[in-house]
Amino acid sequence: MYLNKFKLIDHGIHGFLFLCVSVTFVTTGTVVWILGQESFVFFQSINLFDFLLGTRWEPLLDPKSFGVLPLVCGTLMIVVGAIIVAVPAGILIAAYLNEFCSPKLSSIIKPVLEILAGIPTIVYGYFALTFITPAFKMLFPDMGVFNALSAGIVVGIMILPMISSLCDDAFRAVPSDIREGAYALGATPYEVITQVIMPAAKSRIAASIVLAVSRAIGETMAVTLAAGATPRMTFNPLESIQTITAYIVQVSLGDTPRGGIEYQTCFAVGALLFFMTLIMNMIGNHFLHSKTVGK
Hints:
Elements: H1 2-45, H2 48-53, E1 57-58, E2 65-66, H3 69-100, H4 103-118, H5 121-137, H6 148-173, H7 176-184, H8 189-200, H9 202-217, H10 221-227, H11 244-251, H12 261-289
């Protein structure tokens, strides 16, 4: 009797866990189906190569143009700015917490990083408009109110906790025998972190950077507020740009009639964004599961 009861509980837990896994597959499949269906209708009217290689994006104004490169360029500018801010700072913070920081100070720094991760993204957008942009206008008087520089900086601040946390975990995952052996040979903490720990955790560091980049690619509200809504092919970070996510927000406001070609552009650029983040996640998983020195 008790055996049958335990078997029933075991089967129930197994079924519940399988249901949870199934929800993720169903959700992903539904998203892919919706994006694929609407994008297929869009590309029946617009040539795929004109969409991917065109340099003018004006789907809401006449004459219409559907070249997505300005949105991709704007997105990549934000990503590059975020990487420049977050990657060096995140790795240095992780190195400091791992080898140099006292436990008491570490208990203060880590909650501060967690607070950064919990701040709503729209607050970062207002922070860029009210603090970062006015500060940089003292150096660059020609800077616009909306610009890629401020947006890249706030996105870098947003992904900083992710990089520092993942790198810290990567450093701590290195076997202690390697670290202790280096100290036994007379290495300093700086030599241990730069010549032993970082090389041993390089694949995990790369994975953390790639995953943070995919997070930056999909950021929406901060770049919508800080970067503006001007799709243009430019590499000047002081100018207003528009990212893929910001355009989706623009179309989703309700001014675009449902079912038209303008409405379908939302799904086309959404499919492109989905593909970009999927590639980044695959690259990150490759680095994460690659062999690391010391394993």
